[in-house]
Amino acid sequence: MEFFKFERDIPFMSWGKYTTTISLLTFAISLFFIVTKGLNLGVDFTGGTVLEVSYAQPANLDRIRSIFVTLGIPDASVQNFGTSRDVLIRLPAKHQLSSAKLSETVIASLKELDESIQIRRVEFVGPQVGDELLENGALALLFVSLGIVAYLAMRFEWKFGVAGIIANLHDVIIILGFFAYFQWEFSLTVLAAILAVLGYSVNESVVVFDRIRENFRKMRKAPATQIINNAITRTMSRTIITHGSTEAVVVSMLLFGGETLYYFALALTIGILFGIYSSVLVASPLLMLLGVKREDLVKPEKKQQEEALP
């Protein structure tokens, strides 16, 4: 059942020059900000102290943040965790102060502000552990990318694998570009969101690629441009419904999920939006550029020689 019906094929491939130009520009701008400004790595990657505290009444985050300004730690992260009475505090590593001494000073100041405070958890993340997490995160991205290329190449053909991974990495670089430009905190949850976006985008690419392969088998006399336009148009109803409902959930999480989920939901929101764009207007034009043709997917039929009757 299709809620959105299109009577004619939408000429997506005729927009290839414009969409490719837009993609190259956004990719180059994102890469520029990643190189020049860098990512604002969180405590997970740089090392530091994580405290989880609980109050008898809803916590006043502004007053708690003012304590850290007074202590000379204005870059401390203070956010609700679970309920409005629970607070998660992330302190960056200070070279002139040990983690134990820093946490003792902070706890003493918090108790001066409110004696009802309860310390639930204190964890130290060393710089070496942070480096290992960063290295493992980069390896996870690399292995996921290689896995996507191998999967698409086996299921379809190597041209589909190349087009799919370029389109998906295009989404990742743009997400990182947003985080670099606005200096939003890049934490392990954001890395998890990026890996989720990779999986989500490749799923959309597979749907379009499946339809392209089917069209190559059915529309034997049609050119590749018409085949791809028809494939994307026929998946538009599914694309609108699937991505619309997913984006509604993610935006709800962004608006009402609190500070803990904010950057996770923000990365997903950006990634899904660009994932839709890249699956339709980046991966498919790349297939055309790589010269995809019917023979890549459909084996030529062997002419059967009629056996001469004796």
TrEMBL record:
> Mind telling me which InterPro entries this protein's record contains?
SecD/SecF_arch_bac, SecD/SecF_bac, SecD/SecF_CS, SecD_SecF_C, SecD_SecF_C_bact, SecF_bac
Subcellular location(s) per record: Cell membrane
- Topology of this chain in the membrane: Multi-pass membrane protein
One Pfam annotation reads SecD_SecF_C
Spell out where the chain crosses the membrane.
Answer: 12-35, 133-153, 160-182, 188-209, 240-257, 263-292
One Gene Ontology biological process: protein transport by the Sec complex
Highest taxon in the source lineage: Bacteria
Leader sequence range is none
**One GO CC annotation, please?**
plasma membrane
Q: Which UniProt keywords apply?
A: Cell membrane, Membrane, Protein transport, Translocation, Transmembrane, Transmembrane helix, Transport
The protein's GO terms of the molecular function aspect are: protein-transporting ATPase activity
Major location category of this protein: membrane
User: Which parts of the sequence belong to the Protein export membrane protein SecD/SecF C-terminal domain?
Assistant: 107-291
Q: Share what the entry says about its subunit structure, partners included.
A: Forms a complex with SecD. Part of the essential Sec protein translocation apparatus which comprises SecA, SecYEG and auxiliary proteins SecDF-YajC and YidC.
Q: Which HAMAP family match?
A: SecF_B
Function recorded in the entry: Part of the Sec protein translocase complex. Interacts with the SecYEG preprotein conducting channel. SecDF uses the proton motive force (PMF) to complete protein translocation after the ATP-dependent function of SecA.
Give the record's family classification.
Belongs to the SecD/SecF family. SecF subfamily.
What is the protein named?
Protein-export membrane protein SecF
Organism equals Nitrosomonas communis
